[in-house]
Amino acid sequence: MSATAPRYGRAGRRPSRWQLALRYALLLAVLALTVGPFLWQLSTSLKGPGEDIYRYPPSLVPHQVTLANYAGVARIIPVWDFALNSLKVATTNVLTNCAGAALAGYALARLRFRGRRMALVVFLMAMLVPVESIMIAQFLTMRMLQLNNTLLGVVLPGCVGAMNVLLMRNAFAALPYEVEEAAFVDGANAWQRFVRIALPSVRGTLAVVAIFAFMGAWDDFLWPLIVLSDQSKFTLTIGLNFLHGTFADNQRLVAAGTVIAVLPLIVLFACLQRSFFRGVGEGAVKG
Amino acid sequence: MRPPSAIACSRPAEPEAAVKRHHCASPWLFLAPGLLIALAFGLYPFLSTVAHSFTDARTLTAGQFVGGANYRELIHDAMFWTGLRNSVLYVLGVVPLLVILPLLLAMLVQRRIPGIAFFRAAFYTPVVASVVVVSLIWVWLLDDRGLINALLEGLGFGTVGFLSDPWLLLLSAMAVTVWKGLGYYMIIYLAALANVPGELHEACAVDGAGAVRRFLTVTVPALRSTMVLVAALSSVSAFKVFSEVYLMAGPTGGPGGEDTTLVMLVQQAGTGLSGRVGYASALSVVVFVITLGLMLLVLRANRKEEA
Fold first, then answer.
1. CA A34 distance to own-chain centroid
2. What is the pLDDT at residue A7?
3. Contact call for A225 and B48, based on CB within 8 A
4. Predicted pLDDT at A272
5. Sign, CA torsion A20/A21/A23/A28
6. pLDDT above 50 (res B72)
7. Cβ-based contacts of A95 with chain B (< 8 Å)
8. Is B63 helix (H, G, I), strand (E, B) or coil?
9. Which of A1, A2, A4 to mutate to test the interface with B (most CBs of B within 10 A)?
10. Rounded to whole angstroms, how far apart are CA atoms A267 and A85?
11. Helix (H) or strand (E) holding A260
12. Which end of chain A is more exposed for a tag (fewer CB within 10 A), N or C?
């Protein structure tokens, strides 16, 4: 295996033809393993009632393609309402996280004031407390605020992630100081320096925060499961759990439901993957 | 001049200090939303969880102070030990694989050959998908009449009850967790691999070391701190496992609750209108302490190796 070989300089040795072939063979094998299960699910969701989904040998390509299973899911559960709820939750989560984390991160990195260290410690501690160990208390808080069983209750606890605040702080701290110093001398106040100078320079990190905030909210399961009880408020993940619990035997329906839940995200990721990997490569996720 | 660590909202040495002073409210305005959320939904619930764990509170009643009664009950609760066993097994089963496999994967996609961007993105797909979607996909694949059993039968094996035998269920859930996590840790390793100097490999290759040898003597030592980070991240999240087991084994954790994990117990005990908040809080405190302990353990192991 030559996988450890780094990129040599231009004069460096080139991998031989069969090494390259071996590498592509391995890549394709892993591809089958990671993407195959999604394709199988998609295929199942497109198979009509006349087609045996249990047949052997199995067939990945459906013989009678139909969208009836998607219509079927929509008849049983209000899947489009669930999708809309998920979209609302995810979009809100993106906006609040980007705004809140950028503001707080900027203050921690660039403004000098008494209590800055204290504020930093608060964020660090909040980051260390796992959601799973405070969710019962969170549930009681939501009941007290009468936000249980609302979408606001789903969003609120994670709406400015401490982790994101620290990510933004690091991004701002890495910017050259001189430009802002000059702006300060020219009389720009903190807000103007933040909006006009600092913010445009951290777009990469902001994009990473946005993508993770969207994914996190769209995919979240445990907290919505606890806080939501009324079917009309369900997000897609909770709705899918319900579908699975009630119609477990109808694989075509469950498959159609999962495709509805995952397809928008895969499309979104496919569109953003370039800036995503660049943002991550810039060090956003590096320990 | 002051060290350029931060721009003062009012720099005391400047003549306009007095004029600028009112700007000193502004840092707190910047911080307010984030700080408020961190305090109200991070630190406050933590303190309230600790406080509740010493009471017999329920969802609808405040409860009385009962000292360590919840913790005593926990020790005598067989379900607690089952949950703890399963969560610990989950860490032991998942973490080694998540430290090693993503590293191999990262090395596989490291070199910029044509089409590599597509492969990287494709390997990341399971990370993007919700754990609910991923679990349901595997429930169908591992079904008694699903694809994997069909293939096994085609090879002459009998039907394997991946989703009915308690031990196989737990192993299946672990496999799903590993499958879903591969891409996430691959990206972390990929970023770290970019910093391993190529000369080391070259020197090693000139000395006649084979690929496996180069991997063990150059790549692994250079990536040790990243591997520790991955071990810390994956062990913490493995210990808190909930969704995979909940979805694959059912809300009560499989036959006889044999597959219940600690976080599933917290959810079962503490939610709903008749939730035993006090007892669930004691369980939560245990989850927190062990999570923190795991993190410290991994980090200490790193330090010891360094010394």
1. 18
2. 46
3. no
4. 84
5. positive
6. yes
7. none
8. coil
9. A4
10. 19
11. helix A251-279
12. C
> Are B27 and A41 a contacting pair at CB < 8 A?
no
B193 is written with which tokens? 């691999």
- C-alpha B55/C-alpha A111 separation (Å) is 43
The one-letter amino acid code at B116 reads I
Q: In the prediction, which pLDDT does B256 show?
A: 87
Q: What is the mean pLDDT of chain B?
A: 88
What's chain A's length in residues? 287
φ, ψ (nearest 5 deg) of residue A112: -105, 125
- Cβ <8 Å between A181 and B7: yes
Q: Give this complex's ipTM.
A: 0.89
Structural domains of chain A, ranges and CATH numbers in brackets: 17-66 (no CATH), 79-241+262-284 (1.10.3720.10)
pTM attached to this predicted model:
0.89
Cross-chain residue pair B46–A134, CB shorter than 8 Å: yes
Q: Is the pLDDT of residue B254 over 50?
A: yes
Sketch out chain B's domains with CATH numbers. 71-306 (1.10.3720.10)
Shortest Cα–Cα distance, B19 to chain A (Å): 12
Nearest chain A Cα distance for residue B215, angstroms: 6
Distance CA A138, CA B270 (A): 11
Closest chain B residue to the Cα of A218, Cα to Cα = B130
* Position A186 confidence tier, pLDDT thresholds 50, 70, 90: confident
What backbone torsions phi and psi does residue A146 show, to the nearest 5 degrees?
Answer: 55, 35
Which residues of chain A have a CB within 8 Å of the CB of B119? 27, 30-31
Nearest Cα neighbor of A216 from A90, A112, A119, A96 is: A90
Q: Which of B93, B164, B40 is nearest to A162 (CA)?
A: B40
Q: Which of A165, A226, A281 sits opposite B271 (nearest CB)?
A: A226
- Tell me the two tokens of residue A88: 């609302």
Q: What is the mean pLDDT of residues B96-113?
A: 94
CA distance to partner chain A, nearest, from residue B99 (Å): 15
The Cα B231–Cα B95 span in angstroms is: 6
pLDDT band at A74 (very low <50, low <70, confident <90, very high): very high
Which tens digits make up the pLDDT trace of A112-161? 888 899 999 999 999 999 999 999 999 999 999 999 999 999 999 999 99
Chain A residues closer than 8 Å to B113 by CB? 20, 23-24
Minimum CA–CA partner of B144 in chain A:
A54
* Most B CBs within 10 Å, among A41, A97, A132, to test the B interface: A132
